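dumping these here so i dont lose them again. two proteins, back to back, each one seq then C-alpha cells. dont judge the mess
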Amino acid sequence: MGIKVAKFGGSSVADALQIGKLRKIVEADENIKYVIVSAPGKRFADDSKITDLLYLCKTHIEHKIPYEQIFQVIYDRFTAVEADLGIDAGIRGELGVIKEEIEKGASVDYIASRGEYLNAKIIAEYLGFAFVDAKDIVRFSDRGKFLEEVTDDSINRVLPSVDKAVIPGFYGERLDGSIKTFSRGGSDITGSIIARAVGAEVYENWTDVSGFLRADPRIVDDPKPIKSISYMELRELSYMGASVLHEDAIYPAKVADIPINIRNTNRPEDAGTMITAQPQADPDQVVSGIAGKKGFTVIGIYKNHLAGEKGFIRRLAGIMEDNDITIEHLPTGIDTMSVVLDNKMINGKLDEIVEEMQSQLKPDTLEVVEDIALIATVGAGMAARKGTSATLFGALAKEGVNIRMIDQGSSEMNIIVGVEEKDFETAIKAIYNAFAE
C-alpha cells in the first residue's frame, strides 16, 4: 500500500493516555508516514481546550489583566504529559520561550498556534519520529492568503528527506516570517494539504467517533454508520446541519482524488467512514444519510403566467440582495414559486421583504409560512432506485406529517422536504425507518 497521512484531533491527543493510543495505531501501520496533530482538546466535559486557554492569555494581556495563572494551567498540562510519557522533549524550555514572546506582544496567531507546536514536539519525541514545523512547509502570502503551489514545493522539498514525521496542524508561515493560522478546522486542513502534496493513498482523520452516522443519534435510536460516502453527498448533509469535516479540510484531498477515512482513536478496530471522490456502487445502500435543521420561512408566490414573465427571478433576487439575504431554495412550478429563507438572515425584516415583493413582483397571492424545518434525504443510489420518492412521501403520510415544500436537485442525489417544526423529529424517524436496511 502507498503512503498514509494520519491526522489526530484534539480529543485524540488530549493527554498521555490518548497519545499512548495514538502510538499503538501508528506502530500497527507501517504505511503511516506523516502524522498531523492538533492541540490538546478536552479531557472531560468541564475541561478547557489548550487553544482556548492560549486565546484567553492574549485577551487578558490586551486588557491588561494578569494572565500568569492561565499560562500556568497550560504549563502544568504540557509538562504533566511529558512526564507521564516518560520523555524529555524540552517542553519547559519551549514554554519559557513562548512566555517571553507573549510578554513581548506576540501576535494572536503565534500564541494560538503554540498548542499544536508543543504537542507535535512531544508526540514526535514519543514516537521517535522527526519533528517538522508547519511554518517550514505551509506558506501564506503577507496578506494571509494560502499559497498552494509554494506550499507544495516546500512540502516536496522538506518531507522526502525524513522517513517519518510529526507535523503540527492549524498554522503556517507568511512570506515575511510571521505565523499565520487557518480558520476553524485548521488541523484538518493541514492534514488534507499534506496528503495531496505527497500523493497519499489514504488520508486518515482520527477523532472520537467511528465515522458518520446515517442520522442524528439524538433523534434516531442507534442509527447505522455510513460505510462510504462521496464528497458530493457529504456536502449535502453538511449543508443541512450534519456534523462533518470543514469544507476547506476536504477540498485539497477531493481535488487529488484521495479518500478520507474517518476513524475512532478509542475504537481503532472500527472501519469508520470512507469519503471518496465518486459515489461507491452499493446496491444495499439507497440512502447514505438524513439530516435537517429548523429555523426557515417559506414565502409562497402565485402569479398567473409567472413562467413567461421575463426578469421575475432577477427582481426577486434583487430584493433579497438589497436586504442582504441568501435564498436557500427556490422550488418552482408553472405559476408558483416558493422562496425558502433562513430566519437568522431575515432577522426581523420579514414585513419589509414581503412589502417589497408585493410592490416589485405584483403577485396574485403571496403566502408566508413560518416555523419550517428542512430535511434532506441524501444518497447517490436514489436516482437508480424506483419508488424512492414514493417510499419517502408514504412514510411521512403514514405518520401524519404534512409536507409544506419539496425540492430535488438535478443530480437526483437528494430530496429536501419542508415540514412544520413540530413534526421535525417525527419526520426524520419516519424517513430513517423507511429506508433502514
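---- next one ----
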Amino acid sequence: MDTRAPKQKAPPLTTDCHFHIFGPFDRFPMSPARHYTPPEALVPPYLRVAEALGIERMVVVQASIYGTDNAVTLDAISQFGLHRARGVAVIDDSFDAAALQRLHDQGIRGVRFNMVSGNGTPEDQLDALARRVAPLGWHIQIYADGAKLQEIGPKLAGLPVEVVIDHCGGVKAALGVDHPQFQALLRLLDSRRAWIKVCSYRASSAGSPWADVGANVKALVAAAPDRCVWGTDWPHAQMKPAPEAGLLLDQFFDWVPDSAVRQQILADNPARLYGF
C-alpha cells in the first residue's frame, strides 16, 4: 500500500479528496451485506502515502463495505484531526436532524450515493436527503457509471445542494470526449451545481498504467477548473494491479501543466468545497 515518491511533491495545502480507511476489523467489522472484502487499510500507512506525496489535508470517504455505519470514517477523521480532515458519510432517511448535526460536528460534509458497489443509500432517497442536508451546507456525492450519470444528470442539476461526481464520471476513456455520456457530464458541470473528482484510473479502458484517461481529465479541467478536485482513491480497492499514488500524482502533473490550475484543483477548490 505504500508508494514511491512522485517526481514532484504536491503544493502546500494539497487535499486528497477521495480515499478510504478499512479497519481494524476487530474494532470496525464489515457489513454482512457488502459486495467485496478488502484487506485492512489503516491510518498509519495512509499517512506514509500522504507524506510521500506532500498531502496536507484529507477527505475520508465512507466505503460500501460499512453501509451506513460511519464509525470507521469518524474515527479516522478524529485521528487525522479536524484541522486537516473532513469526511463523506453514507446515511439513509433514518438519520434525523440531531444525528446529522452530530456528524457535521465530527467533520462530515457530504453524503455518498454509491450506484456501483451498492450497500449504501437507496437511490430513491436522493431528493429527500438532499433537502435534509441542505441546511448544513453539505453536498451529495455520486458514484455511478457513465450511462447512469447520463440518465440522472438533469435530476442532479436540480437538487438543492452541490453535487460531487466520483471517478471522472465513470465515462470509459475508449468512448472519447465526444460521446453522449461525456457530453452529459460536461452539461452537468456547466450547470454550476456540480464538481468532478479527477481521480482517473477507474475510467480507464486500457488498464495499467491508465494513461488513456488523460484526454478525459484534460477536457474536464478545461471545462471547469474551479470545480475539479483530485484524490488518490487509496487503497485502490478491487484493482489488480493497484496503481501507486505517486504515479497518479505524476500523471495529474503531466495532464495539468499549469501551476496555477494545479493549485486550484489540489488546494483552493477543496478548501471551498469542504470548508477548510
